[in-house]
Amino acid sequence: MLLANGGALLASSWILRRIGTGRAAPDLVLLLTLRYTLIAVSVLVAGLGGFLTPAGLGFPLALAFVVLLALGEHRRLPVRRIPRLGPLLAGGFAFVVARMLLQVWCFAPYVGDALSYHLPKVAEWVQQGRISSVTGADLRSTFPAGFELLEIWWTVFLHHDVLIEMAGVEFWLLGAAAVHALARWTGLSARSSAFAALIYGLTPTFAFQATACLNDGAVAALVLSTCVLIAFRLSPFLWVWIAALGTGVKPTYLFALPGFAVLAWLCRSAPSLPGPRRILLAVAAAGLAVGGFWYARNLALHGNPLYPMASADGRHLNQQVGPRLGSLLENLRRIADDHLLDSQAPYGPMTKYASGWGPVPFAAGLLAALWVVRFDRGTRILALSIIVSTLCILALVVPDSWFMRFILFFPALTAVALARFSASFRPAWWVAGFALALQFLGTFVPDDFGIDQVSEIVREPWRERGLGPLVPGEPDDARVACLVPGGRKEYLLYRPDFSRRVEYLREHDLGRIESAMESQGLRVLYAPSNHPAIIQAMQERRLKSLTGRFFAKP
Amino acid sequence: VNGSDGRPAPAPLSNAGWIEAAVAACLLATRIALHPGALWKDWVAIVCAWWLVAIFAPGGRTWKAATVLVMLWLLGVYLVGQIPLIVDTLRFQL
Questions:
Q1: pLDDT tens per residue across span A415-428
Q2: Chain A residues within 8 A of B43 when measuring between CB atoms
Q3: CB distance B75–A359 less than 8 Å?
Q4: CB-based contacts of A252, cutoff 8 Å, min separation 6
């Protein structure tokens, strides 16, 4: 695993030297995104080829590591060009990163959405050693899985999910690097830019997203990285590349496109950076493959690239297709009235009825942004782009309890503005510092997990560390059946080391469910108790209820 | 406080300044009309009031005092709502 990770990093550095800008800040963004692309392509190829195993996935990149190390590629990494930050900032980053790694080690996947429809496919594909059409029992499990490819990378070598949160940490780093690069682009010093990155990195919801196996933080990082590529006038092939990656992580990335168009238009007078066409084309093609695969698969399997959206199956999902003025106005009203106050819920990766942006943007960032955009053209352009993207997203998403996670990139604007503002107005630095310390304190344990649960889980050996069992007294069978659709939090059925087999049954009729269980030698069924077949089975005593959603043949 | 390029802050009553002031005043009036009883914690109203100060007295002592006051006020408004939640999440015994 270590060699393969090193190989992915050095191979990314090798490509970067051919398409990079020669400037540390944007090159760091390129490096991290190239690394993600290489890993995603490797996992996709290995998964489709049926060799998604530690050897099959790791050997080519471990070999690349040895070769590139011998060629001295490690001496050319752009991280070596980052200027010294000073003890306070360097210490701040060290604390935050060390705590995040500790969270990766201590946390287990815990968010309902991740357990229900993001992670079952990770468990299934790692267990099977290949990417198949089986994605889980939840209708939403067919959503694009670009982020899950990185989660597979962090689970396949240990055949265990103890490091699965590292996928989010990689995108957290990308988001911080993107804010650093954007701040440099607006003309801030290296230290002030690093301060902006730290401010953004400690945004509570963004920080918790990194260790929650959710993809909204990844989308925010990719939105900001797209702004970096456009602002620094990199090749449009790279714009296509990163846009495809973003779309492959979550379609909400596309909602931000108008803001990118505004940014590109306002930066059009700056000279663009050329690059070797053949490599740029290859990078763009890799991005399109990773991002487009999920839409092509849905088109092939369901006749609709956006399935289950815009289909009869998806009508009960609380999501809209197309912009609505009503959604925009209601979302804005909620932001203005209470969401920015964060008084309805503690911090977490979803932060229900709140923004989870923290006190820094609220108390100082908004004022700083209003002040700085009046005088600084770079920040003004960035603000216009981010505001346009934000308004488009707010018009395109339902005003539900969690819509703020779709605009998680917005605090990057207040972070950049505040870093500039506090450099010239010292009281702002003190307020920001105090508020930042509170954000650090508030982002130790997410509300959804709970400190008691964390204390309990860290006492277990890491091999057994997980949130399961789903319910007390859960049956111990090595194989269980899971009814489709349904499967609430069924990732926990697989166990942290993916040692339990989950067989998905797509039958609706009770007789067929029984015969499928019989023919596959399955005793236990995991299913929603309000499923018509389960109701019938209970009335006719053809199944008995064990505990929770578990049923068995009498 | 100067702009990033070292120039002094521009005069506030240019055309752009008047447009800004009109936007800030309209927003402030709307918030006063919508939430007359809760203005002390209405961040939109507080920021708009500060914005008007920033337009008409940019960079001066009044602006500096108003900026510090508003930042601390907003911080207080935020903490009143969030601190109990952080304390509860971390199970601190007060």
A1: 999 999 999 899 99
A2: 336, 340-341, 362, 366
A3: yes
A4: A216, A219, A393, A396, A397, A406
Q: What is the dihedral of CA B75, B76, B81, B86, to 10 degrees?
A: 70
Residue in this structure with the two tokens 């990078």, named with its chain if needed: A283
Q: For the segment A341-383, what is each residue's pLDDT rounded down to a tens digit?
A: 998 888 999 878 899 999 999 999 999 999 999 889 999 999 9
Residue A485, preceding peptide bond in cis (omega within 30° of 0): yes
Neighbours of A301 (CB within 10 A): 12
Task: Write down the ipTM of this complex.
Answer: 0.88
How far, in Å, CA of A459 to CA of A161, rounded? 17
Select the residue from A329, A338, A343, A436 to test the B interface by mutation, using most B Cβ atoms within 10 A: A343
Q: Which residues of A touch B71 (CB under 8 A)?
A: 363-364, 367, 427-428, 431
Name the 3-class secondary structure at A546: strand
> Starting from the edge strand earliest in sequence, which strands make up the sheet with A544-547, in order?
A501-505, A479-483, A524-526, A550-552, A544-547
Q: How far apart are CA A514 and CA B91, in angstroms?
A: 48
Angle A536-A538-A539 from CA coordinates, rounded to 5°: 65
d(CA A162, CA A496): 7
Q: Can you tell me the distance from the alpha carbon of B26 to that of B33, in angstroms, rounded to the nearest whole number?
A: 11
Average pLDDT over residues B34-63: 90
